[in-house]
Design brief:
Elements lengths: L6 H32 L3 H29 L3 E5 L9 E6 L5 H10 L6 E3 L1 E2 L8 H7 L4 E2 L4 H6 L6 H13 L5 E5 L7 H7 L12 H10 L3 E10 L7 H5 L5 E9 L14 H28 L3
Parallel strand pairs: 1-8, 2-6, 2-7, 3-6, 4-5
Antiparallel strand pairs: 7-8
Helix pairs in contact: 1-2, 1-4, 6-8
């Protein structure tokens, strides 16, 4: 444990370890991804995919290693012990910090299949990481405003097509499709701007989860509803690197896939959109109440 060091020094050491770990594993990911891209035979690609997943899990395992070295974190975790490892999952979580991704990967990697995130198109240009996400078939989404779509109607539905193509790949081997229903990290400013009806959450957006369920809903074993709480406040990325992740409470609830949401056209059918809207609002109301209860029962 390096917690006796000044936090700035911990931040520098952690940054170096994070960078070295990424620069070691990402070239391997990209190399085998290029091999998979060059060889069009489906049977060959199915042999390469497990190798890519093994490399990704080793990379995440090393991240967990430097987290143990630089963080003195108290973990309170429920609901992850009895999850079948070789099933398909749709994973949903509240989103407060970049630390959420490290927390989710640390707790769920090798318990369930590798988490695959829906990412903004701009993130493909992030140095090193963009290549890794591309190599692992993470879907990159372009989100356009309604005003833009009115001017460029030909762009409407592009994200849906991207999601469908990604889910076709996900359906070949067990996969965990990760979705942040809020679509962005929680901040007090965003909460106020939205006039969110929830105390601890931003308004949920059903589009991503609807497309995933419509594309491969029958494949999903269940929905994992993850609630992450930082009793001392959510750390920003630099605070996380400096070892400020003091306590994390994570509750995972396994939910059945709602059969009534697996049919219909979310994009073009108002009744289907309304059904999804009702479902995610009820889910979010329960999550907001759960966060309130967790905070009330946690001794900071």
């Amino acid at each position: 444990m390096l917690n006796f060091l000044p936090r700035i020094l911990i931040g520098i050491i952690t940054s170096i370890l994070l960078a070295l770990n990424s620069f070691f594993w990402v070239p391997l990911l990209v190399l085998f991804a290029l091999v998979k891209l060059a060889v069009p035979w489906p049977a060959f690609r199915l042999r390469i995919d497990p190798l890519l997943l093994f490399i990704a899990e080793a990379w995440i395992g090393c991240n967990s290693g430097w987290m143990a070295l630089t963080q003195r974190t108290t973990w309170s975790v429920k609901g992850i012990d009895e999850l079948p490892a070789n099933s398909w999952y749709l994973v949903n979580s509240n989103h407060q910090s970049w630390a959420d991704i490290f927390v989710l990967q640390h707790l769920l990697t090798r318990r369930i299949p590798l988490l695959k995130f829906f990412l903004k198109q701009e993130l493909i240009w992030v140095p090193v990481m963009g290549l890794a996400w591309w190599a692992l078939d993470f879907p990159f989404m372009r989100r356009h405003s309604e005003a833009f779509l009115k001017k460029h109607p030909e762009m409407r539905g592009k994200d849906q097509e991207t999601t469908r193509k990604a889910c076709e790949k996900f359906a070949l081997i067990p996969t965990s499709v990760m979705n942040f229903l809020e679509g962005t990290r929680f901040t007090k400013a965003k909460h106020a701007h939205q006039q969110s009806p929830y105390r601890h959450l931003l308004k949920p957006k059903a589009g991503g989860i609807a497309l995933a369920l419509n594309a491969m809903g029958e494949k999903f074993h269940s929905i994992l509803d993850v609630t992450i709480v930082y009793p001392y406040g959510a750390p920003n990325f630099w605070q996380f690197l400096c070892g400020d992740l003091k306590r994390v409470i994570v509750h995972v609830q396994t939910l059945p896939v709602p059969p009534h949401l697996l049919v219909g056209d979310y994009t073009n059918d108002p009744q289907v959109r309304e059904a999804y809207s009702i479902w995610v609002k009820e889910l979010w109301q329960r999550k907001d109440q759960k966060i309130t209860e967790i905070l009330a029962n946690s001794s900071v």
